[in-house]
Amino acid sequence: MIKVGVVGGTGYTGVELLRLLSRHPQVELVAITSRGEAGMAVSDMFPSLRGRVGLKFVTPQDAALDKCDAVFFATPNGIAMQQAAGLVAAGVRVIDLAADFRISDIAEWEKWYGMTHAAPDLVAEAVYGLPETSREQIRTARVLANPGCYPTSVQLGFLPLVEAGVVDLAHLIADAKSGVSGAGRKAEVPTLFSESADSFKAYGVSGHRHLPEIRQGLTRFAGQPVGLTFVPHLTPMIRGIHATLYARLTKDVDLQALYEQRFAGEPFVDVMPQGSHPETRSVRASNMCRIAVHRPQGGDTVVVLSVIDNLVKGAAGQAVQNLNIMFGIEESTALDIVPVSP
Length: 342
Description:
single chain; alpha/beta; seven-stranded mixed sheet
C-alpha cells in the first residue's frame, strides 16, 4: 500500500482528492491536515465521505508527513514550496496541486504570484505533470507540479496543432469559461450566489496567472515561442471548464485524423466525432477531457472545443493520475468514473 498524506484537506480540491483516494485500492490515507479544523472528523465537515474516510484533521506538525510515500498539497500558492524540501529529503514524493512549481522561470513566477520563491532548486527539478506529454518524466519525479485547470483544458486542446506545426503560432487565442468552484472554497463577494448567479463575465483580460503556465507549455510543445491571448470567464455553474480555442491554419491537414491519432490510447482524452459540441456536463465529476475540432466553412480558422471538470482533470483527478504513473500503477485506477448526469 502507498501511504499518502494530504496537506490542506478542507477546500474543494482537497475534498475531491479525498473522494478519489478513498476508493483507490492501493492507497492508504494516513494523514489529512488543517490548522483551523484540527481534531474534527473529516466526515463531519464532508458527510459525503462518511464510511469512506475515518480520519480526523491534524495540524501539519502532528501529521508525520515524512513517513508517507507521497504527499499531496491541496493548499494555496506559497505553501508547498516551504515544506517540499524537507519531505523530498526524507524520501517522500511531493505532488503540488497549487502553482509553486509549475513555472520554470523563477522571476516570471515571482512577478505573477507576488512573492519570493522559497525553493528555486526544486523548481529546476520539478516535473510538470500533464500526463499526455510527460509520462516518462513523471515516473521518476520527486516533485510534481500538477497543472492548473485552465492550462489543462487549453494545452490539451491546442496540443496536436502546436506539435504538428500546422498553425500560426504567433496568434493563438484561448477563450475559456470556468464554474465558480474554480475560485476555491472561501468567502469572497464575487463568488456569492447573488453576485455570480444569472450572470456571466470575463476577468483577468490584461493578464491572468495561468497565462505564463499555458504559454510555457505551448512553447515546449512547439519548440519555439508562441503568442497567446488568454481570456478567462466566470460562469454561473459550480463545476466545469469550457475552452474555445482559435488558431489559423498554415498547412492543409485532416484535423480530425490529427487529433484522433495524437490522442489514440489516451485513457482520459476523448476526441469526439466530427461536428460534435462537447458539454461540461458530459465530464462532470470525471477525469475526462472531451475535445472536438472544427474548421468553420472550410476556411483557414481552426476552432477547438475542450471541456473538463475543473476539480477532477483540472486538479485532483489529474493529481491521482500522476500518482498512479509515479508508482507504476494502472493509470485509470480510482479514476474510471462515469460522469454524473444530469
